[in-house]
Amino acid sequence: MQTAHDSAALRPTVEAWRRDGETIGFVPTMGALHEGHLSLVRRARDLADRVVASIFVNPTQFNQAEDLAKYPRTPEQDAAALAEAGCDLLYMPTEEDVYPGGSAANATWVVPGGAAEGLEGAFRPGHFRGVATVVLKLFNLVRPDLAVFGEKDAQQLAVIRQMVRDLLVPVKILPGPTVREPDGLAMSSRNVRLSPQERQDALVLHRALEAAAQVVRREGPGGSADAVRAAMNAVLEPAVAERVARIDYAEVVDATTFQPIDRLPDPRKDPSQEPYLDQAGEIVLPLAVWIGETRLIDNLRLKIN
Prior knowledge:
Strand order of the largest sheet: 1-4-3-2-5-6
Number of helices: 11
Number of domains: 2
Strand content: 15-25%
Number of strands: 10
CATH architecture of the largest domain: 3-Layer(aba) Sandwich
Shape: globular
Distance between the termini: 44 Å
Order of helices and strands: EHEHEHHEHHHEHEHHHEEEE
């Protein structure tokens, strides 16, 4: 595996691959890699001739300087894991390479609406502006044919899909399924912050999603989304009462727009929007819950048919 620390080293390699007619898959990350990230690299490996992964802790998507400073950084371990997963090129840029003059001097931004509004967009103002801007910058640097993003960050995936569609970016966006621990907890770089007791308490997120999925199956097409929300909250509220959890949100949203819905979709009566035929009848159940001092997100994507 090759490693590039700036665009001057990155571009000749990817341009040579492109001249040879090879397709390029891309997996952008912020490091502190776990099996969830590596599964995205392996998916890109299956779909493209060459795979580029980036590790860049993007300062503009953090709301607090303390969170940016605390973000785990394990570059040597990450590089070894990427090489084993089949990555051809690791791009580990400096801030100057991504934000000429530094991020504080950046004056041009991608400011997404639509799927970026509400939920994470409301609780973390400016977050998706930072995400969309850095992803577009990375796309311009790597120029991949396809990029793989994890479904665990479901709203981010929706925002990137929207950006690519709206700005006519020639990159195919592909999802990678959420990878879970054997007990159901979604893998996350934040899990290391949980104490042993909090690690057990965190399982309430998965239990809430499983309960909601049962209600979705019971309600069926055209059913009540409020019944699904109630099922999630019925599982979460005892943990809130015991002061082991705090809920930011537990929602039911359209998979494309990421906006809350009143009724579960009925594909027989409500055909999918043209740009999203692959998402016809899909909903997402996103959760954001604090366990102690650690904020965890999770979700479940379901197809109604």
